[in-house]
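step 3/5: co-fold with 3,4-dihydroxybenzoic acid
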Amino acid sequence: MAQELWTRVDRYIEGRLIPQDPALAAAIAASAAAGLPKIAVSAAQGKMLHLLARLAHARRVLEIGTLGGYSAIWLGRALPPDGRVVSLEVDPRHAEVARSNLSRAGLGAVVEVRVGAALETLPELEREQAGPFDLAFIDADKENNPAYIEWAIRLGRPGTLIIVDNVVREGSILDSASHDADVRGTRRAYEFVGAHSRLAATGIQTVGVKGYDGFLMAIITDGEARS
Ligand code: SAH
Ligand code: DHB
Ligand code: MG
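step 4/5: write tokens
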């Protein structure tokens, strides 16, 4: 009941604010045809990421969790001509589908998809001095979210915006006794962010075509906690 209404409202929003887009539609179709799970951000969420990247004047974006490149297309399109997205993906099949979707979208030279467990590729980025990243979108395995946030800070700068997907999980994050690794990782992410002196953060609950979930958003401050 509620889900059906949320889906209809998302369709309403898309119908008015998010024009049909051949590259995004093709990315979704090709991802489904390749058997990838249907867990990309929604159109409305992708556009929000895009708007936030524009608002931040982002030139360098870090994404953890590429899947078929759907969110990477939204982020890549927000950047100036010399901008760059580095997107980390552990599954080579997902990365291959993503690269094909990204080049179809004209973003083959903008988005680099790097294959490997993010905890192994993030130190590579540091060694290569690939940062500082202006925006980090964290959307991979949830149990490593505290570590990913720590890396986003390390590879960021004061002002960097950090966004974490799937931090409400239908409210299951309230269960402090949960044995679900995703819930535990998410709860540890809140504790980590809340205790960190260099982050100003909030959590926003969302409903829509993807159900009831939410985003955590934080900016790196210059070291003085302000809120
Ligand atoms: N951001 C994408 C969705 C990502 S789904 C979008 O909105 O379009 C989560 C992705 O994270 C999956 O493709 C999964 O293979 C990947 N992933 C899971 N564990 C990972 C890890 N340890 N390192 C890098 N990627 C990982
Ligand atoms: C799942 C992962 C996601 O990143 C998401 O946005 C939705 C679902 C999942 O693993 O089920
Ligand atoms: Mg997600």
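step 5/5: annotate
The longest strand covers residues 199-208.
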